[in-house]
Design goal:
Layout (H helix, E strand, L loop, with lengths): L1 H22 L10 H20 L1 H11 L4 H26 L2 H31 L8 H4 L4 H29 L5 H32 L10 H52 L12 H5 L4 H19 L5 H13 L4 H22 L23 H16 L5 H4 L1
Helix pairs in contact: 1-2, 1-9, 2-4, 4-5, 4-7, 5-7, 7-8, 8-9, 9-11, 9-14, 12-13, 13-14
Protein name: DUF6545 domain-containing protein
Pfam families: DUF6545
Organism: Streptomyces hygroscopicus
Length: 405
């Protein structure tokens, strides 16, 4: 078991260090933000606790100081009492008005200080009664009354904090207006639930020893619950700050992909009608790879495609549209896929017609070959999705008249 802990707990400490390095950058700008300060304290305490939880480190601390089980005391005070209080304070400042959050933070600090005082007293009493150093302090000495009180106060302080975190995250996660704050609260709640399992496991040791059971048999639950708990807490408590940047990068990547998928359709239309291009210099190959402001470039691409389709309508043949519709239905297409296939076929034939006879126009007062797309709600995303369907169908068409015959 020490081998597992020797791997898992340093990894957990590294997670805490990464969070600290990530959040400490904000201290210059938000120096007076109590939620940020509380987060820094929480992950500092958790990191110290995980470092001490590494068997070789706690043994070295006890040996260097000459005080048996000092490392265990640090694990429980830092990782249980102090860190849970700091996390609750951070969440309180996220979800409550400042005055109410300050009041709740004060009482949380008072209750945590009382728990720490009781634990410290019981630790001194247990140490003065002898017993020496224990590799697993809570489990191997749970039968001793001072350690029993110490353990129960510890799991009560830690567990009640996790229950309160779960309650706050569930309550305010449902009504949080910001998407990434809501996700962060839910992830934090999952991490707290994992730690609650750990607290229940530790509390069960008091009962287990009374029945002659050895809690060390299921000690694997400790590194497992701690690893899951700190991972979700680290993600959840930092998600409101990095989530928005993630959404922005996701939007840019999605727009770039859409831009590339529409490029062949845009190029075919703008070569036939160069006047629809607002900025001709962006038609170069380099501009396709490095379009600059991708949101703006995609927007211009969509507008220029629509303008090109409108300019090409005089060359569109209703007869071609009818035959394309019948052929598409025979292949099993329906709905938007059928409309996109018809639009692409009519467009290809219109481009060929304009190239063959630039001055020729479709005559007659009948309806156009295909109706232009118009979103009922003016949804730009729906318009892009439709043009992507047309571009996909257009790219699947034969590249020459001979191959299409």
């Amino acid at each position: 078991m020490n081998g597992v802990k020797g791997v898992v707990f340093p990894f957990c400490a590294a997670i805490c260090l990464l969070v600290l390095l990530y959040k400490v950058r904000d201290i210059r700008i938000h120096r007076k933000d109590p939620a940020l300060v509380a987060l820094l304290v929480a992950f500092s305490c958790k990191g110290a606790s995980f470092a001490l939880s590494t068997p070789s480190v706690s043994a070295a601390v006890d040996a260097r100081t000459g005080i048996p089980n000092l490392g265990a005391l640090g694990i429980h005070l830092f990782g249980g009492v102090a860190s849970s209080a700091a996390i609750l304070i951070a969440i309180a400042y996220w979800v409550y008005p400042p005055d109410e959050a300050c009041r709740k933070a004060f009482w949380r600090l008072v209750s945590s200080a009382l728990c720490a005082a009781v634990m410290l007293t019981m630790w001194f009493v247990a140490g003065s009664a002898g017993g020496g150093r224990a590799t697993h302090y809570l489990l191997q000495q749970a039968h001793r009354p001072p350690v029993t009180v110490y353990l129960l106060v510890y799991v009560t302080a830690f567990g009640s904090g996790m229950v309160e975190i779960i309650r706050l995250c569930w309550r305010f996660g449902r009504v949080a207006g910001r998407q990434w704050l809501r996700r962060g609260l839910y992830a934090t709640g999952i991490g707290a639930a994992a730690y609650l399992v750990y607290c229940i496991d530790r509390a069960s040791a008091v009962v287990a020893v009374q029945f002659g059971l050895n809690p060390l048999r299921w000690e694997l639950l400790t590194p497992l619950a701690n690893g899951i708990g700190i991972s979700f807490l680290a993600v959840g408590l930092t998600m409101p700050s990095w989530g928005q940047a993630t959404s922005e990068w996701h939007r840019k990547v999605r727009n770039f992909i859409h831009y590339q998928r529409l490029y062949a359709l845009w190029r075919a239309l703008t070569e036939a009608h160069p006047h629809v291009v607002l900025e001709p210099q962006h038609s170069a190959t380099f501009a396709r790879i490095m379009p600059g402001n991708i949101g703006y470039r995609l927007y211009r691409e969509v507008i220029e495609i629509q303008d090109g389709l409108l300019a090409l309508r005089p060359y569109m043949d209703p007869g071609i549209a009818a035959r394309a519709r019948q052929s598409a239905r025979q292949t099993g297409l329906s709905g938007e896929a059928l409309r996109a296939a018809v639009q692409a076929t009519v467009l290809r034939q219109a481009l060929w017609a304009k190239q063959a006879a630039p001055g020729m126009r479709r005559t007659g007062d009948g309806p156009p070959a295909v109706q232009p797309y118009a979103s009922r709600s003016g949804d730009y995303g729906a318009e892009v999705a439709w043009l992507l369907s047309v571009a996909r169908a257009f790219s699947n068409l034969p590249s020459s008249r001979r191959s299409s015959s």
